[in-house]
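Input (structure):
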């Protein structure tokens, strides 16, 4: 029996294409020629009992042998080939959801079946990044109505895993983002778990920000737990703070986020589907959504917040999820630190009830924890914040947080950065405005979140008076080069802090 003509030996390319499987072939290899493959062709690769649909990248020089196909890390992890394995390659069939995608691009409404087909094709990698981009673009702005938002949310939920916790309330919280340093989650989880309730929190790493909750938490304890390990932690301590990317509760959402962030746009419908699909998948029964509102936050006006809140509530009702929405001040950062270790330091400072702990972070965490405790069935309305206050002041929340850290793999004290430099005010006056986005950019240029200790420490707030030459904030960096890079940007953009006349 002759060998298939469309067969190539597999090697590992050693190239990270994030979640997009890619295969590399030489343009003159017999498979490319006989199958008519060209760059960006969608190909089906089969090796043993596994298969993957990948995007073809064509090699034009001698870096790849003619009888070899190289797999990106994403493709390699799907196929998991044995040493010296071979694979057969053929054209991938058009995705079943192609008609639905085309209909949405041309402005038509989609139903439950359409969205389910699209999400099934997305997680099976039958949609290319170009097709996913078309879908995200077609849904952006106001192009998803409430019924479509609900259908998309249910479809994203249907194609992922779902955790069941048995009877009783399961609490959760989420912030829609855009506010540097707003690291309330570890404090809230500690308070809620100390109160005897379950709060299995999955959190994200930073994509465009200086730190995600998972980045800050990882400074203090392991977060890359799988579902079984996550369940053990929650059963032992009542709560957890783990990286959502490892439990894969809403894999379709992860794929769409990968497309949305480089485009730098989404819609209320996509945001709601993203957040609530993950809450429902995590088994939550009662959740709170924090919407910071401010001129440089993600949600910039009261009208935008009201529209988002209405869509969140109607979608949550359709899922059977009890939802509380809080609108909070998004005009300036929360806490002192911006960056994983600096934010972790602030969290511990609040939990330890230190005199110098940031009051704004403490109060936000108490507000959120109190609202969640009020939402528990049978709770006496309006008593939650006092209960949260007591659990924090007594040290019960700190003890619970350290116990959660130990259950997740052990607690580590955050370490400071070796290189520091202050950025000084260029005039005397009163702080009237803070640009959250540019402040976050400075922290990223300093190395956050890749360097966990990097970021900025900012103690001034809107309304504070400063004198020329006084520090506005301090840059923390792992290397002198990163320190100078961030400092250069900060001095070139003094309008990060708008300083008016002295009051």
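Output (sequence):
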């Amino acid at each position: 029996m002759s060998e298939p003509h469309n067969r190539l030996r597999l090697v590992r390319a050693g190239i990270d294409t994030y979640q997009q499987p890619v295969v590399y072939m030489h343009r003159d290899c017999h498979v490319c020629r006989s199958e008519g493959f060209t760059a960006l062709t969608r190909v089906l690769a089969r090796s043993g009992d596994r298969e993957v649909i990948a995007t073809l990248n064509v090699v034009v020089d001698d870096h790849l042998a003619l009888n070899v196909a190289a797999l990106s890390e994403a493709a390699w992890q799907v196929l998991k080939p044995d040493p010296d394995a071979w694979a057969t390659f053929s054209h991938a069939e058009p995705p079943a959801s192609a008609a639905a995608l085309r209909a949405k691009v041309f402005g038509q409404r989609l139903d439950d079946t359409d969205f389910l087909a699209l999400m099934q094709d997305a997680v099976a990698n039958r949609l290319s990044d170009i097709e996913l981009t078309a879908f995200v673009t077609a849904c952006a702005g106001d192009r998803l109505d409430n019924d479509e938002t609900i259908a998309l949310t249910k479809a994203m939920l249907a194609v992922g895993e779902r955790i069941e916790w048995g009877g009783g309330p399961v609490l959760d919280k989420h912030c829609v983002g855009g506010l540097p340093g707003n690291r309330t989650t570890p404090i809230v989880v500690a308070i809620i778990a100390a109160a005897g309730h379950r709060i299995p929190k999955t959190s994200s790493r930073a994509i465009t920000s200086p730190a995600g909750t998972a980045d800050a938490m990882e400074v203090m304890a392991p977060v890359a737990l799988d579902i079984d390990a996550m369940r053990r932690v929650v059963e032992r301590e009542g709560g957890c703070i783990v990286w959502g990317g490892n439990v894969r509760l809403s894999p379709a959402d992860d794929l769409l986020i990968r497309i949305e962030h480089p485009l730098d746009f989404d819609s209320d419908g996509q945001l709601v589907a993203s957040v609530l699909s993950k809450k429902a998948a995590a088994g939550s029964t009662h959740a709170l959504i924090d919407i910071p509102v401010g001129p440089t936050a993600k949600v910039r006006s009261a009208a935008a917040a009201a529209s988002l809140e209405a869509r969140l509530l109607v979608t949550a009702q359709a899922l059977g999820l009890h939802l509380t929405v809080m609108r909070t001040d998004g005009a300036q950062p929360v806490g002192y630190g911006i960056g994983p270790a600096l934010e972790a330091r602030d969290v511990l400072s609040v939990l330890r009830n230190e005199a110098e702990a940031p009051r704004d972070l403490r109060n936000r965490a108490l507000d959120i924890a109190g609202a969640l405790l009020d939402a528990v069935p049978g709770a006496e309305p309006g008593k939650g914040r006092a209960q949260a206050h007591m659990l924090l002041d007594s040290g019960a929340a700190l003890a619970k947080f350290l116990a959660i850290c130990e259950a997740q793999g052990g607690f580590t004290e955050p370490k400071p950065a070796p290189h520091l430099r202050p950025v000084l005010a260029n005039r005397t006056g009163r702080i009237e405005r803070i640009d959250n986005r540019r402040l976050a950019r400075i922290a990223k240029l300093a190395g956050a979140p890749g360097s966990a200790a990097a970021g900025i420490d900012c103690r001034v707030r809107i309304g504070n008076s400063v004198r020329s030459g006084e520090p506005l904030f301090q840059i923390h960096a792992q290397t002198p080069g990163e320190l100078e890079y961030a400092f250069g940007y900060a001095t070139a953009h003094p309008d990060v802090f708008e300083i008016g006349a002295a009051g």
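Notes: The mean pLDDT is 94. The first strand starts at residue 7 and ends at 12.
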